[in-house]
Amino acid sequence: MTVAEALRSRLARSPAAALLLGAVTVAGFQPFALFPLPLLTLALLLGQWQRAPSARRRIALGFAFGLGLFLAGVSWVYVSLHDFGAMPWPLAAFTTLLLCAYLALYPAVAGWAFGALPASFAVRACLILPGCWTILEWSRGWLFTGFPWLALGYSQIPASPLAGFAPLLGIHGVTFATVACAGSLAAIFHGGLAGRRRAAALAGGTLVLLLVAGWVLKQARWTVPTGEPVTVALLQGNIPQDLKWRPERLKTTLDTYLDRVSNTDARLIVLPETALPLFLKDVPPAYLLELTEHARRNGGDVLVGLPETHASQPGVYFNSVLSFGASPSQVYRKRHLVPFGEFVPLKAWLGEVVAALAIPLTDFSRGAPDQPPLQVAGQRVGVNICYEDAFGDEIIRQLPAATLLVNVSNVAWFGRSIAPWQHLQISQARALETGRAVLRATNTGMTAAIAADGTVVGMAVPFTGAVLRQTVQGFSGATPYVRWGDVPALGWAVAAVVLGIARRRRDGAGPPVASSRPSA
Known about the structure:
six-stranded mixed beta sheet; disordered C terminus; Nitrilase/N-carbamoyl-D-aminoacid amidohydrolase; alpha/beta; single chain; globular; 16 helices
């Protein structure tokens, strides 16, 4: 072996190279949206795993890949902790690193599973790994209240042919297809390198089949228009996060939103999360009356995000969206709260730490798990608040009754990072999964109207005060994902793992990963 070959071999098994592959994978997501890139980087990671001399090295490579992915992809957590949460920068950096290290454990487990389960390379790459990766991402979406950010399937939304699996199997089904395509690429290269033409041809067939199936599914329409289109106005206040809760800024904020509401004739007007930075009971009655009367003159309603106290339990309060206008006033209360941002886990131990941060209202209560859509402006609107729309299995609780979905957010916490773009892509996935238009009203961006096929049909310029006016169509009916949730995708994932192991046993037992010579 020459020196150059030895160097290439060492780099191919290097955790530093895996770290770089993970970081590069972030470019597959918004705002870069290079959706083929995660297929390539994951295929290269599979090559590293195959060359790894031990399970410990595969775990290290998987951890490094995950650490690179999350350090590059969710570094905006540092912005919220330090820039707006007043946490000293060393502590904010350490906390961000700790979160990313935890998230990196999931790809590390995938690395272990890739080599531990007995099968040939092609079977492990095309069946076992996609199944394991999907199960692990699903687990990440609920364990410790869940953090499903940067699930690989989101990188394919909405442009990739693989996005066609979203209304059928949800984002976890798209993840399965994404990893299976990456595995097919790796198996094509591996089979060709080892002279296993049949294995390479089968992997190529799998890749083509997944892409064609996704494209065909993408042409399907699972829901149908219902009722007349409705005019909507999505308000973007662009109130700086460091000024939002200051008492001297309150009048300016109230006047900003009232002026923008008063100058639109849309039937449905939507304000962002906590647009009014005071409790409902403290809002001047004349202000609410003016909002209500203007909405009635438009023949519709206005949705307002603001905190709300419990009528009979002092000290209990909710992050809410309330409606005012022609319809009876209704309320949606956020049910999936952000740890440390809206509630404090292990409060007896961590309460003093969180109290030292400049984060207002960190003791919200959860809304009821099953809340009906709001009947406003002639539509049945399924509302969710900020981070909630990252949980597709929770969004479908308001379906198929809801004809429109509305997300209100305040991502000013993350400054001019890539977080708002990633959040927009998550909302696009919810549109595809449900076959519904999604309306997003945010404080600083990305305020947008998303069609039922996941495409953005209108967006306000980020970090400006704006009113985005659109005409949107309501939809009825239920996609397979709305009917069955994550169960089919998880069933598919488990079946793939079982089938992969069974195939190896049928073909004859052997070492899962050869230490010196790659298996077919």
